Amino acid sequence: MRASSVSRVALRIVATVAAAIWALVFVGEWRKVEHDPQFCASSCHHEPGPRNERASADWHAGGHAGVECQACHTTSVGQGLRLLWATYVKKPPVAHGKATAAACSDCHEKKPAEWRVIAETQGHREHRAVKGVDCLSCHAPSTHVDQPPEQACLSCHKDDRLHKPTTLGAETCLSCHSYAASKKNVQPPNTVVCEKCHADTTTLIASGGGAYVRPMREVNDHALHGGVACQLCHNAHGIKATPPQGQPICAKCHQFENFQVGNEKRTGPEEHFKCEGCHKPHAPTGSAIRNCINCHQKKAEGIVGDAEPTTTTALKHKSCASCHVPHTWKAERSGCMQCHKEQAALFQTRSPPQHKTCTDCHDVHGAPPTGAVCLKCHSDTKGQHVALAPERHKDCTSCHNPHAPKPEDTRTSCSKCHSDELTQVMRDGPEGHTKDSCFGCHQPHNNPLPPPNICGKCHGEKAKAVATAGPPKHQVCTSCHQRHAFKITDIGATCSRCHQNLFDAAARGLPSVPHQADCKSCHTFHGEPGVAQTACLDCHKKVAAEFNPPNAKHGDCTSCHKSHTPASSAPAECRNCHQDKAAVAALWPPQSAHAQACNQCHQQHDVRNKKACSECHAPETASLASGPAKHQCQSCHPPHGAPPGQGPAWWQRCDACHQAKVQSVKERGPIHSDCKNCHKPHEFGLPACTSCHTDMGSKGLHAVQKHAADCTKCHDPHVKATPTRQQCLACHTDRVNHEPAAATCNTCHIFK
User: Fold this and answer.
1) Phi first, then psi: what are they for 97, rounded to 5°?
2) Element (H, E) at 607
3) What are phi and psi of 223, to 5 degrees?
4) Which stretch of DSSP H or E encloses residue 602?
5) Which residues neighbour 521 within 8 Å (Cβ) at sequence distance 6 or greater?
6) C-alpha angle with apex 284: 282 to 285, nearest 5 degrees?
7) Which residues pair with 401 in a beta bridge?
8) Tens digits of per-residue pLDDT, 584-639?
9) Sign of dihedral through CA atoms 563, 567, 573, 574?
10) At what angle do helices 2-35 and 77-89 cross, to 10 degrees?
């Protein structure tokens, strides 16, 4: 009985101790559940580092580094027991410990001074007034992770991105919005904020992928919208920071311009209704006018059709707005008159009605008008004649003032270009050339150069004489008469305008130039300018006395003598007609008289009267006295024959007189067949036969002295034949009866 009591006591003690131990263990475990962050970290919320490190060291960021998890994440007793049980049995816990804004207030309101400063900052005041927004709306994501505060904005404002993503890395909500600004410093984002990014061009280009972005420093007071707050036009949270397409946003400030554009009564391009079609928001103030080139490039560059660029009428104006009113872009005649007052006054008072509309003549986007534009109306009359005029006169405005086309005084119109000519006419011209003004000779709407026969209107007789002149220039009065003066005061100077080379001896390679007296001494002015032969002989009387031409050509002085050329050059002209004789003369040595001028033999003005050969060839002609009379120089030597050694030889001409002998001698062999082998030139005596037959005197009967005295008594040198009996009997008369039957003597009497 006693033992069982002891046992029960022991059991109670053990149970009590066990209960105490369990209570202590439970209290310790419960403390972990309520206060130890390691419990959270080691059970489910594992941190990335070693398990024995404190969770708060890595998980809590900022001011929560020393705060227990359970300070914000509170649980009920039942939740705590279930968490503890789940830890032991290794089962997933139930949902628990959701943080609330009240937990934030429990800590942060314990420091009222600090809390009030934070609560009154611009960002907190703005967000406190928003329904459904509390501390955890912004701060919850950054409690367990070291996250920049700017990221918190994206939980609610994920669609309110910056207008253009860049690579600068600083473009967040807080780049523009001052969240922590105090109450007294609070201000909305403004232009100053924009300058944080838009101040430097280089950075903007790099961040914008290479596209050009105008920096804030260029958006100054001289640029469009310079000094205006960026937010008036730009939405920083839009996809682009540009104004909406169209006019509404611009119309908030530019109401009058919007009215002009909207009420423009025309059918024009759509771009004219869009402000940004012409205006670039940050461009210099005057750049909108220059932007016309973007759409009107050809007109801005002066290109008309497919032609090359030129200076059009429009380009002569300062800008498009000189004529086109901005925002309506209409150009009216009244606009022209505002600048061109002088022209406006002229066509209002001195111009026909057809000239009073500027654009009838002026194509503002085409080339400036020339005379060609007048032909649009005047093509059927004056236009036909203007086409014949020189280039300057083809432009009607060279004579006509287009804004007062009818000249008040024709001489005044001409004097604009021809003042020197008009002065010359009035000073030097005859009275008849001034009374009709310029139009006495010139036609205003035709070729201004008078026709060649215009002078005949007044100078009929002289015009008829001139018409018969040989050279075409001499048939035109103005070839000699200077226009607008007409009177010739210096004949030599007048002729030298065309014939200067006649008096320039050096240029012509002449020692001198004859006939440099007054040109009219030889030439007739108003008629054929050639010089008659009688005029030459009137001065050259010595020539006239000896003049005996063999034919008509030699009777014309100009056949041999060229005007204004020395007479010594006349012999050189012979070859022009006597080319065959000149060719033979060229064969002679230069020093020979036969190679020199023809007048070495022929008398100049009586060519048939020739110089005697003896004047040059005295020894040769002296020998003629011993020969037959018919042996004259020309008998063997043609006057224009080739020199010795060239052409036919003199002995080849013997047959002209001695034909029978020449034919006979050819039978005697090669030596006797050539006359020159026996006969010597200019020696007409018989040659000695012994010059060839040297040994004949010692042979046979040739040794007899009488037989050797004269060979020709027995032999005929031109006939190949033995001496006949009759030839022998001519000397041996006493032998007539000696052998009368013998035909020849040398049958018996041997001579060789």
Assistant:
1) 65, 35
2) strand 606-610
3) -100, 160
4) strand 602-603
5) none
6) 105
7) 404
8) 888 888 888 888 888 888 888 888 888 888 888 888 888 777 777 778 888 788 88
9) positive
10) 100
What Cα–Cα distance (Å) separates residue 256 from each residue in 232, 274, 310, 328, 515?
Answer: 18, 15, 37, 12, 92
8-state DSSP, 589: -
Secondary structure class of 59 (helix, strand, coil):
helix
Question: Do the Cβ atoms of 62 and 108 come closer than 8 Å?
Answer: no
Please give the Cα distance from 57 to 47 (Å, whole number).
10
The CA distance from 682 to 700, in Å, is 35
CA distance 183 to 125: 9
Segment (H or E) for 538: helix 533-539
CA 738 remoteness from chain centre? 120
CB contact at 8 A, 39 and 33: yes
Please compute, for residue 18, the number of CA atoms within 13 A of its CA located in the half-sphere on the CB side.
6
Q: Which amino acid is at 47?
A: E
Residue 396, number of CB atoms within 10 A of its CB: 23
pLDDT of 695 over the 60 cut: yes
Q: Report the alpha-carbon angle 680-686-690, nearest 5.
A: 90
Average pLDDT over residues 347-366: 80
Q: What gap in Å lies between CA 276 and CA 264, rounded to an integer?
A: 17
Cα-trace Rg, the chain: 69
184 burial (CB, 10 Å; 0-12 / 13-18 / 19+) is: exposed
719 versus 288: the higher-pLDDT residue is 719
Phi, psi at 669, each rounded to 5° = 105, 175
Q: Mention every residue, 6+ apart, whose C-beta is less than 8 A from residue 69.
A: 37, 40, 45, 55, 56, 97
Helices (H) and strands (E) in the chain, counts: 37, 2
Show contacts of 273-277: CB within 8 Å, 24+ apart: 273/247, 274/245, 274/246, 274/247, 275/243, 275/246, 275/247, 275/250, 276/242, 276/243, 276/245
Angstrom distances, CA of residue 627 to CA of 633, 684, 709: 12, 5, 22
255 phi and psi angles, rounded to 5 deg: -70, -40
> Quick count: other Cβ atoms within 10 Å of Cβ 216?
19
Amino acid of residue 614: S
DSSP character for 168?
S
Q: How far are the Cα atoms of 265, 372, 532, 616, 692 from residue 592, in angstroms, in the given order?
A: 106, 74, 37, 10, 35
Residue pair 446/385 in contact (Cβ under 8 Å)? The answer is yes
- CA nearest to 662, candidates 674, 650, 644: 674
Residues in the chain: 752
CA–CA distances in Å: residue 681 to residues 86, 622, 637, 667: 168, 12, 11, 23
User: What DSSP string describes 632-700?
Assistant: -HHHHS-TTPPPTTSSS-GGGGGGGT-HHHHHHHGGG-HHHHSGGGT-BTTB-SPPPGGGT-TTGGGSG
Report phi then psi at 284, rounded to 5: -55, 155
- Per-residue pLDDT of 385-433, as tens digits, reads 666 777 777 777 778 888 888 776 667 778 888 888 888 888 777 777 7
Backbone angles phi, psi at 586, to 5 degrees: -70, -15
Q: Which amino acid is at 114?
A: E
Q: Which of 279, 297, 296 is nearest to 288 (CA)?
A: 279
Q: Which residue has the tokens 């059918």?
A: 267
Task: Report helix, strand or coil for 609.
Answer: strand
Angle at Cα 646 formed by Cα 645 and Cα 649, nearest 5°? 70
Among 618, 621, 572, 633, CA closest to 599? 572
Going along 392-533, which residue ranges are E strands? Answer: none
Phi (first) and psi of residue 666, to 5 degrees: -60, -20
Q: How many CA atoms within 13 Å lie on the side-chain side of 315?
A: 17
Spatial separation of the C-alpha atoms in residues 88 and 106, rounded to whole Å: 32
User: What is d(CA 510, CA 501) in angstroms, rounded to the nearest whole number?
Assistant: 11
Taking Cα atoms as reference points, which of 334, 394, 384, 383 lies closest to residue 359?
334
